[in-house]
């Protein structure tokens, strides 16, 4: 595998780039603040191991990537990409089979700090992560799931991705989760 880190891109006063070791603490802060501020469950060790070891989860694996949005020296947004598919349970078995680990690039941790939203940062980070998935090789598709109960999540993902399964309709993700599964075509 080749490490194809691209040059940073500017987005107004922001820089969108692959995370560097010095970004790990800032990325962790954005992720943890999102868990506690936006999600009703906060930090859950079984779900969020990558957040504790950002370096190991994203920077040390050549098939993974963490893209950050930076304002000055401050990380204000994150988007992770992992070479694993969704787990069954909690997700439906057919979803786990459709998106197997290794050939699936899963988008995770697409978060932007509230004061920095509505500047196109999430879209720019997702596009950069998807470009990495397309050039890294071996990935068949980009997959993600989101909680559409979070304001703006459904509209954002509907503008970028194709809905594959609304788990709220099947009841296959447990009570209280607004989980919808999406797929993004790899850029050509």
CATH third-level topology: Aminopeptidase
> What distance lies between the first and last C-alpha atoms, to the nearest angstrom?
19 Å
Q: Describe the global form.
A: globular
Strand order of the largest sheet: 1-2-3-4-5-6-8-7
Total of domains: 1
Assembly level: single chain
- Unreliable spans are none
Relative helix content: 25-40%
CATH class: Alpha Beta
Largest sheet composition: 8 strands, mixed
Number of helices: 7
Query: CATH homologous superfamily?
Result: Gcn5-related N-acetyltransferase (GNAT)
What radius of gyration results from the CA coordinates?
A: 16 Å
Estimate the mean pLDDT confidence: 91
Strand content: 25-35%
Q: Return the structural class.
A: alpha+beta
**Run of helices and strands:** EEHHHEEHEHEHEHE
Tally of DSSP β-strands: 8
Please state the second-level CATH architecture.
3-Layer(aba) Sandwich
Task: Tell me briefly what this model is.
The protein contains seven helices and eight strands; from the N terminus they run ββαααββαβαβαβαβ.
Describe this structure in words.
The chain is an alpha+beta fold and 188 residues long. It has a single domain, classed as 3-Layer(aba) Sandwich (Aminopeptidase). It contains 7 helices and 8 strands. The chain has helices spanning 24-37, 49-52, 54-59, 93-98, 121-136, 153-160, 167-170, and strands spanning 9-11, 14-18, 65-71, 74-82, 104-112, 141-147, 162-166, 179-184. It starts with 8 loop residues before the first strand and ends with a strand. The model has no long low-confidence stretch (mean pLDDT 91).
């Amino acid at each position: 595998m080749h490490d194809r880190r691209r040059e940073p891109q500017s987005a107004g006063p922001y820089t969108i780039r692959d995370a560097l070791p010095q970004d790990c603490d800032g990325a962790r802060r954005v992720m943890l603040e999102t868990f506690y501020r936006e999600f009703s469950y906060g930090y859950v060790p079984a779900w969020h191991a990558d957040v504790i070891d950002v370096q190991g989860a994203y920077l040390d694996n050549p098939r993974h990537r963490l893209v950050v949005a930076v304002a000055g020296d401050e990380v204000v947004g994150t988007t992770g990409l992992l070479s694993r598919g969704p787990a069954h349970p909690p997700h439906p078995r057919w979803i786990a089979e459709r998106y197997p680990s290794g050939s699936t690039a899963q988008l995770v941790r697409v978060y932007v700090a509230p004061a920095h939203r509505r500047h196109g940062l999430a879209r720019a980070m997702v596009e950069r992560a998807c470009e990495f998935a397309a050039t890294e090789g071996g990935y068949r598709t980009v997959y993600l799931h989101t909680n559409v109960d979070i304001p703006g999540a459904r509209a954002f993902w509907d503008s970028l991705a194709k809905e594959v399964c609304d788990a709220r309709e099947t009841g296959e993700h447990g009570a209280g989760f607004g989980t919808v599964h999406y797929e993004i075509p790899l850029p050509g």
